[in-house]
Design goal:
There is one protein chain. The chain is mostly helical and about 300 residues long. It has 2 domains: about 210 residues, Cation efflux protein transmembrane domain (Alpha-lytic protease prodomain-like); about 80 residues, Cation efflux protein, cytoplasmic domain (Alpha-Beta Plaits), CATH 3.30.70.1350. Helices cover about 70% and strands about 10% of the residues. Strands 1-2-3 form a 3-stranded mixed beta sheet. The chain is elongated, with a radius of gyration of 25 Å. About 0% of the residues have low confidence. This is Cation efflux system protein.
């Protein structure tokens, strides 16, 4: 029952210390950005600090997901374990991000008419430190991103924040070289707008999982057709495909078979099809006769 879940946790577990180290680096730099941003009044730094907060939150989610997957697997009371904790945390992260991005945009609009003077050198130095911090985290997570979807999500968060740090660097450089006051609020807005689409995508993905919709990359109608084409299968019904948490797709189905069919062969063929063509290793298949399948048609849902 749990072999697929164990493999998922094991792959990420090998990079547990790397995630922890990247989280420590992110937290340290987040404090630096918040302090310097507050002291200088730099909207670009505050905006990038919000982005860094999402990275820290995302790394924390990944770390918690690995710990929960390793130590809180399925039980008789929690038959799916604590895997959904990652999804709920991601949704909370998205709500927080929308609020922060909204604050940055409103604050920027208020500053456009009379942009405050922002010292460029502290912003420039902080951005340089941010690039260095992100490069360290980038190097820690790069190898794991090829093996684990969970680690890849954290890796992409760090990569996106690296881009944000370059934006802050540009803001500080423009301020030092030209004294143009609009550079800071405009780049702050750009970073805020850069965060919003990723936030919407994160929220949509979390909601899709919580509503138990089929994974976007799986054509359930095609799956039904292919299962129905297996030797001995007369009918496919009660087919469900959903995501338990990121990288863990699950399926269940009822297959009505012909009287001459061998249920064990049909079961093996169905499980192989789902695993090889759709990477669904955890599938619960009920093989039944046509007569017993009629009961399913009498159910209200």
């Amino acid at each position: 029952m749990e072999h697929g879940h164990g493999a998922h946790a094991g792959a990420s577990g090998r990079y547990l210390w790397r995630l922890g180290a990247a989280l420590g680096v992110g937290l340290a730099f987040l404090v630096v950005e918040v302090v310097v941003g507050a002291l200088t009044g730099s909207l670009a730094l505050i905006s990038d600090a919000a982005h860094m907060l999402t990275d820290v939150f995302g790394l924390g989610i990944s770390l918690i997901a690995i710990v929960l997957a390793r130590g809180s697997g399925p039980t008789f009371r929690r038959t799916f374990g604590m895997y959904r904790g990652e999804v709920l945390a991601a949704l909370a992260n998205a709500v927080l991000l929308f609020g922060v991005a909204g604050y940055v945009l409103v604050e920027a609009i208020g500053r456009i008419s009379e942009p405050p003077a922002v010292p460029g050198l502290p912003v420039l130095l902080t951005a340089t430190a941010g690039i260095a911090a992100n490069l360290v985290s980038f190097g820690l997570l790069r190898s794991g991103a090829k093996e684990s979807l969970n680690i890849r999500g954290a890796y992409l968060e760090v990569l996106a924040d690296l881009i944000g740090s370059f934006g802050v660097l540009l803001s500080g450089a423009i301020t030092i070289l030209t004294g143009w006051r609009y550079a800071d609020p405009l780049i702050g807005v750009a970073i805020g707008l850069f965060v919003l689409p990723r936030t919407a995508k994160l929220a949509a993905r979390a909601l899709r999982i919580l509503f138990q919709h089929a994974p976007a990359e799986v054509d359930v109608e095609k799956v039904s057709h292919e299962l129905g084409g297996l030797t001995g299968v007369a009918d496919v019904h009660d087919l469900h495909v959903w995501t338990l948490t990121s990288g863990m797709e699950v399926a269940s189905a009822h297959l009505a078979v012909d009287p001459a069919a061998e249920p064990a062969r049909v079961l093996a063929a169905a499980q192989a099809l789902l695993a090889e063509r759709y990477s669904i290793d955890h599938a619960t298949i009920q093989v039944e006769t046509r007569e017993s399948a009629r009961r399913c048609q009498e159910l209200s849902w």
